[in-house]
Amino acid sequence: MLDDNDDECTAIIVTTTEIAEDAVMISNLKKALNVVLDGDEIYVEHNPNPVVGNRCDLSLAALSREIQVMKQKFIEQDKINALAEQTISSLQKRLHHVSLSLHSYQEIRGRFIDSYYRDKCTPEITPHQKKTIAQGNAAAHGGDVKMDAESYRDGGGRTDIPIFKQLYGYVPHVIWSITHEETITLLNTHAGVKASMTKVGSEKFYALFAEFIDAFEDSGYNTEYLKGNGTATGPAPRVNSAFWAFMQCVKDEVRPVKGGAPGEASV
After folding, report:
1. 3-state DSSP assignment of residue 19
2. Is residue 265 predicted with pLDDT exceeding 60?
């Protein structure tokens, strides 16, 4: 095929010969090639690069291109499968939470933010926060951006918006209108790592999250960003690229903490 740094293209001639001893096959092949060159029509195809050859050869060139297309489709499918697994895990956790009474779960969710505030921000916590933390249980571990955002509505009781933004990237009123499951999964993933005392994200992990937050906001919170495979013709290619970069980095850029409180890259 055509080399980007070359002014030449591939020329391939394909023919057949009977199976025989090596020397006989070589001799027959030379004769067959001469027949092709003297008698067969030679074609040039551009798809996308020029290939010169006889008709039999050009079909093989097309097969090579088809294989490359299929490989790319498999890569894209692997990305989709990985995202589906993370989304299913997030939905299963949220379904468990729904099985609790709404009022009880809202109280428990307060422990997640209060614990992060206590463990990672080293503030003076209030007696009410101490009580909330003490009364919490395992249901409060991990992010739940939608439920936590509800705590900041009128009458919800919470006013520490900067803490919420550290965990989820946006202020609560932005989250109220977001229903896109993949976006919710991403925000919950970040919060779960940032608040954790057993695992820590790398600087790259937090940098990629910040890039998604900026890109999604700049797009006007366009939730169509997964369409178009991130190409220039997609609805929001920058958001698409930032989304996949973050979600795929989790397996390599989040590590368990061995003893003591984790050190955490600043955002």
Report:
1. coil
2. no
